[in-house]
Design a protein that fits this description.
61% of the residues lie in helices and 2% in strands. The chain has 273 residues and is mainly α. The chain has one domain (3-272). The protein has a two-stranded antiparallel sheet with strand order 1-2. Helix 5 (108-123) packs across helix 6, helix 5 (108-123) runs parallel beside helix 10 (207-219) and helix 12 packs across helix 13 (258-272). The termini are far apart.
């Protein structure tokens, strides 16, 4: 059996499904206070930790992350997030309840409208850097789907650059300090067989996630495969790195909790700055 598959089976169980139990586990983790990530303005939800924006929601942004929840901060009450100032950008995040309601009610057409607007707005930035452009799209999607804040053009660029640089630093630190290396085959295997794949399957993925993935890919003029294997590849690379890094950190700190390990790892990165 593939090594990545074995590691995910150990972490999520042999047959990961988007069940009520798994949903509760994700939401429970989302209530904990964590430091930066995926990449990293805090208080993002529905991120399977290392996924993407995800969204994924926003992909991978969006999906957000089942391995790492380091972008997610604890809520100040049960109804909404308190305002958070991130490098002079004040963000009011939608509450978990608001996001759940959005997931229950949003149709494919709703997501299509959002992502079409995101892509159209991103084109106005006229950015030559392909990676930065991806992060601009992710920030704009995050703004519309996860916050109650309207970012200025300057704020979008600032947050996109910040998130991009933090993500690259996060990956490079693992490569340089821990000798982590990954192959294209491992990344492709993760995308195809990893836990996120079950969320895209007919059995494991609810209609809201299906609608969002489809709308996101179509807005970019991509197939789902191109979205996952090409456009959001940088996010999935981080997930594969974490699979190799997590056991090393667990042994180093004698800690099993992923969130605490992410915190320790971020502290190491901060100390080197």
């Amino acid at each position: 059996m593939n090594k990545i598959k074995r590691e995910f089976d150990h972490f999520f169980g042999d047959s990961p499904r988007l069940t009520e139990q798994l949903k509760s586990q994700i939401l429970q983790k989302a209530s904990r206070k964590e430091k930066n990530w995926w990449f990293t303005v805090t208080k993002r939800n529905f991120k399977y930790t290392a996924f993407s924006l995800i969204l994924i929601s926003v992909a991978t942004i969006f999906v957000f992350s089942l391995i790492t929840n380091d972008d997610i901060s604890e809520t100040q009450d049960n109804s909404k997030f308190a305002n958070k100032v991130e490098n002079e950008v004040e963000v009011e995040w939608k509450s978990i309840e608001e996001q759940e309601e959005q997931r229950r009610t949003y149709t494919y057409q709703d997501y299509k409208t959002v992502y079409n607007q995101v892509v159209a707005e991103a084109k106005k930035f006229d950015v030559d850097d392909t990676l930065l452009n991806k992060w601009i799209i992710r920030i704009l999607a995050e703004e519309k789907l996860l916050t109650n804040t309207d970012f200025t053009i300057g704020q979008v660029v600032h947050l996109a650059k910040q998130r991009m640089e933090e993500n690259e630093t996060w990956k490079n630190f693992a490569i340089e300090q821990y000798g982590i290396s990954i192959t294209d085959e491992e990344v492709d295997q993760f995308i195809t067989d990893g836990p996120e794949a079950s969320f895209r399957s007919v059995e494991g993925l609810d209609s809201s996630y299906q609608n969002e993935y489809k709308a996101y890919a179509e807005a970019l003029g991509l197939t789902l495969g191109q979205l996952l294997h090409q456009h959001d590849r940088d996010l999935h690379e981080r997930n594969v790195i974490w699979l190799k890094l997590q056991p090393m950190l667990a042994e180093k700190y004698s800690i099993e909790d992923n969130n605490l390990l992410l915190e320790k790892y971020q502290e190491e990165i901060n100390e080197k700055k």
